[in-house]
Amino acid sequence: MLDVNEIQTITHDVIVVGAGGAGLRAAVECSRQGLDIGVVCKSLLGKAHTVMAEGGAAAALGNVDSRDNWKIHFRDTMRGGKFLNQWRMAELHAKQSPDRIRELEEWGAVFDRTKDGLIAQRNFGGHRYPRLAHTGDRTGLELIRTLQDKGVHSGISVHQECTVLDLLKDENGRISGMVGYWRETGRFVLYRAKAIIFATGGGGKGWRITSNSWEYTGDGQAMAYRAGAELMDMEFCQFHPTGMVWPPSVRGILVTEGVRGEGGILTNSEGDRFMFKYTPEKFQSETADTVEEANRWLAGDKNARRPPELLTRDVVARSIVQEVKAGRGSPHGGAFLDIGSRRPADYIKKKLPSMYHQFKELAEVDITKDPMEVGPTFHYMMGGIRVDADTQMTRVDGLFACGECAAGLHGANRLGGNSLSDLLVFGRLAGVGAKEFIDANEGLPEINHDQVRGIIRSATDILNREEGENPYLIHEALRDVNQDFVGIYRTKEGLTEGIAKQAELKEKAKTVKAYGTSQYNAGWHEALDLGNLFITCEAIARAALLREESRGGHSRVDFEGEREEWGLVNIVCRMGDDGNMIVEKLERGEDPEHLAKVAHATLEELEGSNG
Amino acid sequence: MANRTIRIWRGDQSGGQFEEYTVDVGEGMVVLDVIHLAQMHHANDMAVRWNCKAGKCGSCSMEINGKPKLGCMTRMGDYEADEIITVQPMKSFPVIRDLVTDVSWNYRQNERITPFTPRPRDADGNWRMYTEDVERTQEFRKCIECFLCQNTCHVLRDHDKRDQFVGPRFMIRIAQLDMHPLDTVDRIPATKEEYGAGYCNITRCCTEVCPEHINITDNGIIPMKERIVSRYYDPITMLARKLFGGK
Question: Catalytic residue numbers of A?
Fold first, then answer.
């Protein structure tokens, strides 16, 4: 029998899993709190998915339009989330993000500037005022490099290219540690900690067309679920309206919303600026209804309303699909996104350099001259691990979650730019929460050796069996199933079939085989990640089947429009005693009066009131 | 779709060889796509680093037909239709397995650099910096840490001066801090003595391979060298130092 004492053991007060923006911000906070902190990440430090965030971080600094304040940011976030957001999280986020942005500047971030020398802010979908602090169109890289350099000098131990397999719990049900393996050698490692913070990102790798990287296999969601945590709002998937569509090998790669924020327009094959047709009723009073008014807005007229291209992402993504379905798509099944005729070439190269570069090198399109072809791509999960709004602790003692893997801030639809500020605000709060938990619960929890052995055995089985399924091909099949049955538009029949097909593939995956040794074996890593992806995708499909309405990033063809009764509940998934997934409604309870008043106020009532 | 042959180096520290794979290559594919096809259909265990597949994370650095490049930004269409593509790991770093190398040395260099230390905020709690002041530093912050410049720099690649020169990546990191309008630390003495700025003899190989088109040599390294020269070798400054002391 495997002797657990022989396994390499690493102990910290707190371990953060994931080194994207949320993970690094949480780690920096733990370090500030005087804790011994370790960060475990699947890739090299600085490569996390946050680098793909382009447009900016939303914070009501009011540098560009002084009418902005936290209340309007809060109101925009709730409206964008179709009022399924957790009120308290949206409040904390709107109030705290300006300080989190200023703090980055203190740590070396270099944002673009206004004429007065302050942090510049750009327009984005769903945000009433120019609100996104940005660095060209590579804001995510700026954020991650800043936190990385801050972390390097904050005494944080980084355990890179190490994948976590599963969590460990002590006899009281408290998190006691986790087991992982070094990708380089395949050797196992036992982590012990007083608290663990998940900042593991999303699960877009379950879809055929996605902007996500290989790392995005829903690891945190699945591990937390297995440990007894709840997953919430999983049905809400953000299909970013503008992914590249051509050539096929780059399909899904993100085209920043910043293109539209800087004045880019969407047109169909007839040259029609189609978004004017799709403004939802709720947003009509705040959206331009003529090209003339939209152009005045672009020219800087503060009394003009925003163009419809800057409606929320769920609306824009569905509109593009509608145009394609009506036969008015671009040659490769998308829409045209034109910035070249709206702004001078030098301006585009300055404000959108990586888009210029990306289209030039990957699609041979010069965006300063020609329109881009774009279409929806799976981008972000609004749902994730259910957490306490103030502490970020999950339903499992000692397990915290922040960033994309946590649920609550975004409700049914996330506004662009609210992800980077989410990472900063809730990354920090998770660090504070972990510190408070440790103060109240002293001592290092005991490790259950049987749990460790069980985790290692299931991992090595994949290498040891004589033959079996190719993990890559199962993954490819799963991506097709989700793309076809759990996509933008959903039906009862499609979801039911999708769940059945997921289950067939999951069964097949039980005999998956990795050839070769455990040393940097990509096939083995792929096989291990698959197990997590199945759970995450199943939760999405099952929650989508239960919610019989269309709201935000969840559209049911058989149940069009928002239904009042569904506005009263969130959906949670958890593991039943028999190992099967339980999906149920969770009553939201009474709206907090002081916040509801803000969310339902008119803009005039809120402008300039920073109280 | 067309069948293409790709030769990929397979092995580890104990040795290795090129293996040939024939895969069906679709329109617009990049070299990383072709490696992934070979991995999916012929060599499941092949080790290759990648993340964003859009030239933004700097993970898939490799040598393609002898040139240091990102696999995700190198299109198959850039080569002749019957040309065999040869892919190998970055030469300057110890190989771990197949296309994956040990780049940890780079992370240790970053730790040696004195961190950003800003001047106090303005009275209203903000810092004021102007576009023209931040542009120079922003150019260097575009760096995605692919380490292709480190791989190419002959001081590191051919002369193995790792213990004496931090390499172009970190020269621009230092330049970035030095040119940051808010920073207050004097890194010139360390740039001369510890980081080894003198070793660079301006062959511009690093600039040529930078996938972000950062002007590493002309905008980063040369200005830093000039600052060292004016501090240490300018006759008037030298005289002043002799008379009045100081660094």
Answer: 240, 260
